[in-house]
Amino acid sequence: NYLKELVNKFDTANSPGARREALRAIVQFSPSEILSCPDWPTLHMLVTRSLGDQDPFISNNSFGILLRLFSTSNLTAIKEAYVILVEHLIDTPYYNQELKQGVDVCGVENSGLMQKFHLLTIFIHWLPHYWFRFNNAFMS
Which residues of the chain have pLDDT under 50? Predict the structure, then answer.
């Protein structure tokens, strides 16, 4: 399976060049193809880690995967994107240290973090809409 090979290349044990190449190909797949991949749990973990990658190409394109998942009308895709985003924000060093002391929201180095919180805010804004449409699905 081609997507499985790409997930293996996207692993953090590989070189940044190999990871960029794999990610470039992964973002070409539709959200439904990504979620139905047998290696979705591994890809979920890799995307979560890659959101904080030092390489801007990797972190930005990983964020792009989340945006594509959020933009679908598929509740499972939206839920997976939300979980990845929250897991990443909890694991980020800012969460445990600097957020308690405040963060310079205008600082260029924090723009990615602010984009992630903005996406989380958008999801929370739309949550009542999803709850009314899919309340049984949210309970599972």
Answer: none
DSSP 140: -
DSSP conformational letter for 74: -
Cα–Cα dist 14/51, whole Å: 16
Question: Tokens for 66?
Answer: 């989340």
Query: What's CA 135's distance to the chain center, in Å?
Result: 23
* Mean pLDDT of all residues belonging to the chain: 81
Tokens of 90: 């909890």
First to last CA, the chain: 30
Question: What is the pLDDT at residue 135?
Answer: 57
CA nearest 66: which of 123, 1, 135? 123
Q: Can you read off the two tokens belonging to residue 89?
A: 């924000």
User: Is residue 1 packed enough to be buried (19+ CB in 10 Å), middle (13-18) or exposed (0-12)?
Assistant: exposed
